[in-house]
């Protein structure tokens, strides 16, 4: 079973995704694939809190900010993977050097292929992404290329996944795959 | 008229091409720099036309209302630009409002309203 979870920021996607991943793997191995790469102490503290939040849910943690498909080598096929988040993964792959600002235009394709590999090979996968497409703003070229790249990955995953779910203020809309969880 | 809405890069036009068998010559794509044309079966990027209207002091909903016979069997596509914080720039605020009012009018007139989300269709009406 593969599930894509999208929605605006701070709408409860991560917590919902964690509960879902637990439900999908009552007896099996489950991994939280953390894609955010910490850049300072504030990031590290937040990550430590997140690890504490998950502690009782039985997740192993795979910190994987790039080359996402390598999680399968680390955790094996017979496991459930929660990838949180596609958004951070693309950021790391697209802007490998945060200071130079140079964008890797092949990043979207690479991320999509890696995530598809997880979807096809792992027992279960839950992907968390962010819906950043419905505001009234004219962005610079870099931001637009990031938005279109993330949307491309979302669309590839939505086509592959069994279920696509949108969260809004903790409420669930089932966009694909029916309402049974 | 069938209305298709959704955020940026969600696959609205791809969906319309698939669903209605549209070719490029059946699609008019709006621009913020020019007037709209109702002569083709599908009008895409209506949010660009509303931006044009804001800059030129025109009322997009009135223009659509006056030419209803031209689009009542058309496929209309507009980007959903309604979910961000209130924009700081007055012209962008006016753009969002004009686009929202037009979409509400078009939704009320539409035979069907479809939202495209990650390439998937969601029937709203």
Describe, in plain words, how this protein is organized in 3D:
- With 181 residues, chain A is α/β, with parallel strands linked by helices.
- Chain A has one domain: P-loop containing nucleotide triphosphate hydrolases (Rossmann fold, 3-Layer(aba) Sandwich).
- Chain A contains six helices and seven strands; from the N terminus they run βαβαβαβααβαββ.
- In chain A, strands 3-2-4-5-1-6-7 form a seven-stranded mixed sheet, with helices on both faces.
- The longest helix of chain A is centred in the C-terminal third of the chain and has 20 residues.
- Chain A starts with a strand and ends in a 5-residue tail after the last strand.
- The relative contact order of chain A is 0.22.
- Chain B has a single domain, classed as 3-Layer(aba) Sandwich (Rossmann fold).
- The model of chain B has no long low-confidence stretch (mean pLDDT 95).
- In chain B, a hairpin with a 2-residue loop joins strand 5 and strand 6.
- Chain B is globular and about 40 Å long.
- Chain B has 125 residues and is an alpha/beta fold.
- Chain B has five helices and six strands; from the N terminus they run βαββαααβαββ.
- At the A-B interface, helix 6 of A face helix 5 of B.
Explain the layout of strands and helices:
The complex is a heterodimer of chains A (181) and B (125).
Chain A: E1 2-7, H1 13-24, E2 29-34, H2 41-54, E3 60-63, H3 70-75, E4 79-84, H4 86-94, H5 107-121, E5 124-128, H6 141-160, E6 163-168, E7 171-176
Parallel strand pairs in A: 1-5, 1-6, 2-3, 2-4, 4-5
Antiparallel strand pairs in A: 6-7
Helix pairs in contact in A: 4-5, 4-6, 5-6
Chain B: E1 2-6, H1 12-20, E2 27-29, E3 42-44, H2 46-56, H3 60-66, H4 68-71, E4 75-79, H5 90-109, E5 112-117, E6 120-123
Parallel strand pairs in B: 1-4, 1-5, 2-3, 3-4
Antiparallel strand pairs in B: 5-6
């Amino acid at each position: 079973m593969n599930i894509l979870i999208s929605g605006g920021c701070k709408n409860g996607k991560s917590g919902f995704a964690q509960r879902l991943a637990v439900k999908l793997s009552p007896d099996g191995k489950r991994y939280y694939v953390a894609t955010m790469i910490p850049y300072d102490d504030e990031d590290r503290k937040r990550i430590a809190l997140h690890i504490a939040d998950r502690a009782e849910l039985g997740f192993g943690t795979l910190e994987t900010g790039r080359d996402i498909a390598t999680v399968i080598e680390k955790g094996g096929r017979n496991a459930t993977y929660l990838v949180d988040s596609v958004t951070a993964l693309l950021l790391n792959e697209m802007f490998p050097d945060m200071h130079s600002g140079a964008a890797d235009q092949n990043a979207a394709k690479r991320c999509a292929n890696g995530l598809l590999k997880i979807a096809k090979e792992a027992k279960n996968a839950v992907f968390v992404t962010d819906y950043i497409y419905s505001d009234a703003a004219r962005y610079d070229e870099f931001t637009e290329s990031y938005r279109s790249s993330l949307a491309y990955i979302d669309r590839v995953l939505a086509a592959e996944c069994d279920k696509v779910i949108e969260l809004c203020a903790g409420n669930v809309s089932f966009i694909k795959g029916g309402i049974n969880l | 008229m069938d209305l298709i809405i959704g955020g940026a890069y969600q696959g609205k036009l791809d969906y319309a091409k698939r669903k209605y068998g549209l070719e490029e010559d059946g699609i008019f794509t709006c621009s913020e720099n020019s007037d709209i044309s109702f002569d083709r079966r599908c009008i895409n990027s209506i949010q660009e036309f509303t931006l044009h209207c804001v800059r030129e002091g025109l009322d997009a909903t009135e223009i659509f209302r006056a030419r209803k016979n031209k689009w009542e069997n058309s496929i209309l596509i507009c980007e959903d630009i309604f979910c961000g914080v209130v924009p700081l720039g007055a012209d962008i605020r006016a753009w969002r409002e004009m686009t929202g009012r037009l979409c509400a009018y078009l939704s009320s007139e539409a035979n069907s309203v479809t939202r495209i989300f990650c390439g998937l269709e969601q029937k709203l009406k």
